[in-house]
Design brief:
This protein has about 160 residues and is mainly alpha-helical. The protein has a domain of about 50 residues. The protein is about 65% helix and about 0% strand. It has five helices and two strands. Strands 1-2 form a two-stranded antiparallel ribbon. A hairpin with a 4-residue loop joins β1 and β2. The chain is elongated. GO terms for molecular function: unfolded protein binding. InterPro entries: HSP20-like_chaperone (IPR008978), NudC_fam (IPR037898). This is Nuclear migration protein nudC. It comes from Papilio machaon.
Length: about 160
């Protein structure tokens, strides 16, 4: 009889009958109380979420306004004397001249080696170790330099047989 599920039914029925409103009203009261607590918690979480979204939106809007203000700052004009303008122009011309002077001539072997290394890194592995054509579609060697035109290449190809 210890495992009989109905052994306390009579006792519980007696208690429920003595309670005002019966079992049905007690269950309803507890249910409505818990539903109100759950609704209050849901409203509180919703309000917190809305407040957080509003703060985030305000921060984003402020950052956007700051960015626009930085981007659209009015241009300022600074007047300089004729003497300062001439000095600036001379400096610009000196810079241009120094750049063209360093770029002219045969170039050092170190510059050539750096250029070869840079171009080898960009090409296929099949092309590694092969010489690259210069600007004139020819070749630059240590003691010899040559160029060719497309017309010369086509004449050469028409008169000879290429074996691959």
């Amino acid at each position: 009889m210890a495992n009989d599920p109905e052994r306390f039914d009579s006792m519980l029925l007696a208690m429920a009958q003595q309670h005002e409103g019966g079992v049905k009203d007690v269950v309803k009261d507890v249910f409505y109380e818990q539903a109100k607590k759950a609704q209050d918690e849901a409203d509180k979480a919703k309000k917190e979420r809305e407040d957080a979204e509003k703060r985030l939106k305000d921060i984003q809007q402020r950052k956007e306004q700051e960015r626009l203000a930085r981007d659209f700052e009015p241009a300022t004009v600074t007047e300089i004397t004729d003497q300062e303008a001439e000095q600036m122009q001379e400096d610009i011309e000196k810079d241009k001249k120094s750049k063209t002077d360093s770029g002219d001539g045969e170039g050092s072997s170190n510059d050539q080696a750096q250029a070869d290394n840079a171009s080898e890194e960009e090409d296929d592995p099949k092309e590694k170790g092969k010489l690259k054509p210069n600007a004139g579609n020819g070749c630059d060697l240590e003691n010899y330099r040559w160029t060719q035109t497309l017309e010369e290449v086509e004449e050469d190809a028409a008169g000879s047989v290429m074996i691959i």
